[in-house]
């Protein structure tokens, strides 16, 4: 391989894309950085706008790991990122694994997010395709610290945040989810496979009103994939159940459409706060 050919290929970066706007934002940022972008898009998940912005696009079905590897190698991709969401309940009904995907699936003891994604990443890296952090080029999207809205949390709400934080940490440690819904220091809902928005709606209805949503990273969170994310849709779910607070771990999750989200929160009187946990366990808001 000539030096010029190698330099052209090194400019390429792959995206294994799920749903949502994160893949599109990454494509735009990567191209501004001078990278050519090769997208592996998932049928039924990836936004078509992502494919329109990319340099190369290949559609696959969920579970076609061997095809992903083959396509990347054919395109000269040696680096990739995992971006966007995959509807978790699809793993029980819409997976069409090829031989490599099926072989890997049968080797995974725990069919949970981290175990699945780490196994896929390990397989890609053994094939010479390095998996990079999903925040590459987009670190400005990390959730900021402090109160982002006009309203600040009350003493009662701070108490609920602290209570919810401990519970959210624990379900994260068990790789169940990253979010809890609480009221008056009682757990209304724990996020599981249904995802954050559904957990908010379920817990918010039980709380009746004033639900406090706490979302944190998992212990040992791998920035290569599955970072917590919030945005306008999250805020809308909380507004629908007359919730009062969205507390998110700062610097460890993504925030989309910040200005619009905060504007909507202020209209609804919802508190949005980025929380930092110190080494001694104390929370700073």
UniProtKB/TrEMBL annotation:
Record-annotated LpxI N-terminal domain positions: 12-141
| InterPro entries to which the protein is assigned, alphabetical | LpxI, LpxI_C, LpxI_N
Cite the LpxI C-terminal domain residue spans from the record: 144-273
UniProt-recorded name of the protein: DUF1009 domain-containing protein
Species of origin: Desulfomarina profundi
């Amino acid at each position: 391989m000539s030096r010029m050919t190698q330099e052209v290929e090194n400019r390429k970066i792959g995206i294994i894309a799920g749903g949502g706007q994160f893949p599109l934002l990454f494509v735009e940022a990567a191209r501004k950085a001078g990278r050519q972008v090769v997208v592996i898009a998932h049928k039924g998940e990836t936004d078509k706008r992502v494919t329109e912005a990319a340099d190369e696009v290949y559609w696959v079905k969920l579970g076609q790991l061997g095809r992903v590897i083959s396509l990347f190698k054919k395109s000269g991709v040696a680096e990739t990122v995992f971006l966007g969401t995959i509807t978790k309940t699809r793993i029980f009904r819409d997976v069409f694994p090829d031989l490599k995907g099926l072989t890997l699936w049968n080797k995974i003891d725990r069919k949970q997010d981290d175990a699945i994604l780490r196994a896929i990443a390990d397989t890609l890296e053994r094939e010479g395709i390095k998996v990079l952090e999903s925040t590459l080029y987009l670190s400005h999207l990390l959730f900021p610290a402090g109160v982002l809205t006009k309203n600040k949390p009350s003493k009662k709400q701070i108490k609920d945040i602290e209570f919810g934080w401990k519970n959210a940490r624990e379900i994260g440690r068990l790789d169940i989810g990253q979010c809890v819904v609480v009221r008056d220091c009682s757990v209304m809902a724990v996020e599981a496979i249904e995802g954050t928005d559904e957990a908010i709606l379920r817990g918010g209805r039980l709380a009746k009103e004033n639900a406090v949503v706490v979302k944190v990273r998992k212990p040992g969170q791998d920035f290569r994939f599955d970072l917590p994310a919030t945005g306008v849709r999250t805020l809308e779910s909380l507004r629908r159940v007359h919730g009062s607070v969205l507390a998110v771990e700062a610097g460890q999750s993504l925030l989309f459409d910040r200005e619009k989200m905060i504007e909507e929160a202020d209209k609804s009187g919802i508190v949005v706060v980025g929380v930092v946990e110190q080494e001694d366990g104390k929370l700073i808001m």
